[in-house]
Design goal:
Helix content: 55-70%
Shape: extended
Mean pLDDT: 84
Number of helices: 4
Radius of gyration: 19 Å
Low-confidence stretches: none
Strand order of the largest sheet: 1-3-2
Largest sheet: 3 strands, antiparallel
Order of helices and strands: EHHEEHH
Distance between the termini: 44 Å
Structural class: mainly alpha
Number of strands: 3
Strand content: 5-15%
């Protein structure tokens, strides 16, 4: 039986990894860090920010509220403070619907390609 290398789950993500995940700039994330109490990444001795999975989830929610739903920073802060659980549920529902839409569009394209041939 071949050796299967165990998957290593990351504990911390660098600023570069986070900016790439969300398509944001470091200054954008630093600004959000100042504006949202829930976003407090760990800083090492050099001052580099290290983000946990919980931080990533918070950034994902903020990104959803600000960039996709169009809320202001103040509105997003209030939404997260008042009912984070509802916001998270809404985000997950929207994400699932977007995934389903993407799958349906791929099926539609596949059918159109099949009809042309």
């Amino acid at each position: 039986m071949p050796y299967k290398k165990p998957e290593i789950e990351k504990i911390y993500y660098s600023m570069g990894e986070v900016t790439e995940m969300f398509g944001l700039t470091p200054s954008n994330i630093r600004y959000w860090e100042n504006q949202f109490e829930a976003l407090k990444p760990f800083k090492n001795k050099k001052g580099n920010r290290l983000f946990t999975k919980e931080d990533l989830e918070t950034i994902r929610l903020i990104h959803y509220l600000v960039k996709q739903r169009g809320l202001t920073i103040k509105g997003a802060r209030q939404k997260l403070k008042e009912n984070r659980e509802d916001t998270l549920n809404n985000y997950e529902i929207v994400k699932k619907l977007q995934d389903i839409r993407q799958e349906l569009m791929a099926i539609k394209e596949s059918l159109e390609d099949h009809d042309e041939n």
